[in-house]
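<purpose> Linking amino acid order to shape
<body> The protein record starts here
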Amino acid sequence: MDPEMNQINVIPLVDVMLVLLVIVLTTATFITTGHIPVDLAKASEAAAQPDEPIRITLTSKGTLFLNDQEMSREGLIAQLQEFPRKTLVVVRADRIIKLEQFVDVVDEVKGEGFQQVSLAVERK
């Protein structure tokens, strides 16, 4: 009744592999860029970052994050009290925010005694 099957159907295998590929690529993107999506400004010279800096992120909507935890400006200042003053602070600011917002955050950080403050950018 049923003819013998001489071939293996590989279409379901290809479908599963494509789904797994999409999952891996999506996960890899979050691992390499961080958890908070920010469209960084471009610069021709970008320095390498040392181990474990303090990461302050300012999103396009003005939301402030300290090491991937959302907080207010007052909360940021309170949390910065816990870190040594020689720790590098990297500010990741979305390129469409107002310069004034970025300067206010950097001014507050420097006002707390942190002298090593840098801006995260992407290489052109």
About this structure: The mean pLDDT is 83. Strands lie at 42-43, 54-58, 64-66, 69-71, 89-93, 117-119, 122-123. The longest strand covers residues 54-58. The chain is about 35% helix and 20% strand.
